[in-house]
Amino acid sequence: MSAPARTDAGALPAAVPLPDAEQAREALRMRRLIYGHLRSRAVCAMAELGLADLLADTGPLDAPAIAERTGADPALLTRLLRALAAFGVLEAAGTTPPVRYRLTPLGATLRSDAPGSALPTALLALSATGPAWQRLPRVVREGRPAYAAEHGVDFFAHLDADPWLRGVFDRSQETGLALELRGVLDALDLTGTGVVVDVGGGDGALLAGLLTARPGLRGVLVDRAAALPAARARFATAGLGERCDAVEGDFFGTLPTGGDLYVLRHILHDWDDDSCVRLLRSCRAAMPPGARLALVDHMADPADDPESAEWGALMDLYMMTLFDGGRERGRAETEALLHRAGFTVTAVTRLPGGSAVVEAHPAHPAHPARPARQAPDAHGTDTDRALDVVLHWMGGYLTRPHPELGRPGAVCPFVEPALRAGTVRTRTVRGITPARAREELHALVDGLAGELDTTDWAHSNRTLHTAVAVLPDLPRPLWRLLDETQAELKPALARRGLMLGQFHPDCPEPAARNPRFRVSRSPLPLLAMRRMALHDVLFLHRDPALFAEYRRRFGDRYARGAAVDPLFRQVYEEAEQAMSEGSGAR
Fold first, then answer.
1. If you ran DSSP here, which 8-state letter would residue 12 be given?
2. Nearest-CA neighbor of 226 among 200, 206, 252, 207?
């Protein structure tokens, strides 16, 4: 690593300007940031010397007594103790020798038996992670983590090869969990949950905590082989051996199936975005209908309180030095990963300390039915990428308000509950023949209609059942055929109680309340089929035959005065009056 050039921006000026009072305050603040590394080293030295356990056992001691018990140099130890007292970690009794030192509540968190003990974290920083932090300038310059350069192997390989380090890491994870477990339990409704699958669960601390708090649960832990002995020992000690399995697995590969809840705690921040999506897709592929996913991770957004934002920034630098692509993410970034992997977010619960519990459900089956032709299109868009794009659009656009919509609420109020219920069945269709495109699109619509009736849906609410066909390689000149197909088949579908929506980047369909807003424009061409719903009066009222089908299904709601959106009622009554006048004229 080359030293910075002597002529760069850090070179000293010929004369140092004198600061005013505000400039002096800021210059001193900056020095405190620069010297903050020494504060960390002092606390880690206290951890390595075992001072917290010593003072907890003996009570207050003076420096010579502490030096005798720890084998430290008395004079230099005295100076360390003074610094620790200045930092609030110790408290000095008296100002003249013999000054005796006792633990403060802050210093007591370094005891090995303290609830949420910080001791293993300090030992980890002292022995393994701290040296990599020193290489942060190199990380930023070269764009790769420093841990392997410092230790010769990557972080997890280092853990696997060093049982002591593995134990310190596991203990650090466990004590960190102690700060979060109550919040995790409060955030997750485990009613009706049978099996929890802890993906990358390490020594089993989280799973043991969940199963101990909820006696009706069973658990499966999946991790590397090196982590499993500690997990099995923990389960046996906790009396959970009959309720919990620990299995070797690669969470980028095949995971155990059949779980009701899949948990990832502080896993995603180790990986780059593409790796996170692969991992999440592995979870989705293993999940049966009705299963859900829970992420526990740091989530510090700029809008958070300053303490949480600072903690998130520190952890992000931590990940940067350890892992290639590792990073802390905010809520929007986390949701984007989940949407790419085929999930929709259903709840986000903030925890004290900057972490959050994010719950999600599969937005569509892991292996939807697909047509025979699946060759990449001219732009190289593969099947998964096409679904990623559409699912992100559905979860990020259709489920949110829009200023041009002309009303409050989501662009499509049915999408979010359907995604949450797992009743959006999505597939790609490629290779539409230009010469036979109209015929093939009509056949595709027939297939979507049949799919609504033949699919074994995860939820019994029929109004949430939706079948989507994405046409990623449909040439732009054929997009207009989607509009024409929708118009041509609309009457026949309405007679069956079905609604067909067409979406593409040029779709001219306007919003019901704002004709200038083209509400149905999507990133890729697609067709979506669902059952007729109450709000469809906005799309069926102009055609007497279509309105008649709507009235046959929902007229009783209006007749008995049931609660209905005022706009729906107005449109319905105007259409009914127009139909009555039309009948009289004949």
1. P
2. 200
Q: pLDDT for 199-242, tens place per residue?
A: 998 889 889 999 998 988 999 999 988 889 989 999 999 999 88
Residue with tokens 């906790």: 238
pLDDT at residue 585 is higher than 70: no
- 148-186: buried (b, 16+ CB within 10 Å) or exposed (e) per residue? bebbeeebbebbbebeebbebbbbbbbbbbeebbebbee
**In which band, very low, low, confident or very high, does the pLDDT at 346 lie, cut at 50, 70 and 90?**
confident
Lookup result for tokens 């109020």: 413
Edge-to-edge strand order for the sheet containing 526-531?
424-428, 466-470, 526-531, 498-503
Q: Which of 266, 269, 465, 541 is catalytic?
A: 269
Q: What is the mean pLDDT of residues 297-325?
A: 73
* Torsional sign, CA 300, 302, 308, 313: positive
- Mean of per-residue pLDDT scores for the chain: 83
Q: Work out the end-to-end distance of the chain between its first and last CA atoms, rounded to an integer number of angstroms.
A: 91
pLDDT value, residue 487: 93
Closest CA to 466 of 505, 511, 430, 498: 498
19-64 pLDDT, tens digit each: 888 888 988 888 888 888 888 889 989 988 999 999 999 999 999 9
Half-sphere exposure of 300 (CA within 13 A, CB side): 20
Q: If we measure between CA atoms, which residue out of 226, 107, 214 comes closest to residue 164?
A: 226
Tell me the CB-side half-sphere exposure of residue 528, using CA atoms within 13 A.
Answer: 25
What distances in angstroms separate CA 484 from CA 201, 503, 540, one per listed residue?
53, 12, 16
In the residue annotation, 339 being an active-site residue is answered as no
What own/partner pairs with CB < 8 Å and gap ≥ 24 does 135-141 have? 135/1, 135/321, 136/317, 136/320, 136/321, 137/1, 138/1, 139/320, 139/321
Q: Is 368 left (phi over 0), alpha (psi -120 to 50) or beta?
A: beta
Q: Please answer whether residues 396 and 522 qualify as being in contact, where contact means their C-beta atoms are separated by less than 8 angstroms.
A: no
At 33, is the secondary structure helix, strand, or coil? helix
User: DSSP state, 509?
Assistant: P
Taking the C-alpha atoms of residue 198 and residue 173, their distance in angstroms, rounded to an integer, is: 14
Please give the single-letter amino acid code of residue 479: W
Q: How far apart are CA 260 and CA 293, in angstroms?
A: 9
pLDDT in tens, 164-178: 888 888 788 777 777
